[in-house]
Amino acid sequence: MKAFDVATGAVLWQTRLGTAVQGFPISYAVDGKQYIAVPTAWGAGVPLLYSNWILEDPLRVPEAGSALYVFTVGD
Fold first, then answer.
1. Which 3 state secondary structure label does DSSP give 40?
2. How do beta strands 2-4 and 26-30 pair?
3. Closest CA relative to residue 25, chosen from 12, 14, 39, 44
4. How many CB atoms lie under 10 A from the CB of residue 40?
5. Contact, 37 vs 20, CB < 8 A?
6. Whole-structure pTM over 0.85, yes or no?
7. For residues 19 and 41, is the Cβ–Cβ distance under 8 A?
8. Are 44 and 20 within 8 A, CB to CB?
C-alpha cells in the first residue's frame, strides 16, 4: 500500500500488507484525527499468482487470515 502526494505524485510512505487487499480503502476522522482503513484477506486466488507477476520482488503466499489495517494521516 502506498500514499502519494496529490500535488507532486511523490510517494509519502509505503508498506507491505500481510495479504491481498480485498476491498476499497476508506478515510474517516475521529476527534479531528484522520485515518485510512483497508481490509485484507486471502481471497479470489490472486495471491497465489503474485510471485509469478512480481519476479524482481516476490511476495510470500499468505497461509491464511484476514485483517483490517488502519493508518493515521499526518503526524
1. strand
2. unpaired
3. 39
4. 20
5. no
6. no
7. yes
8. yes
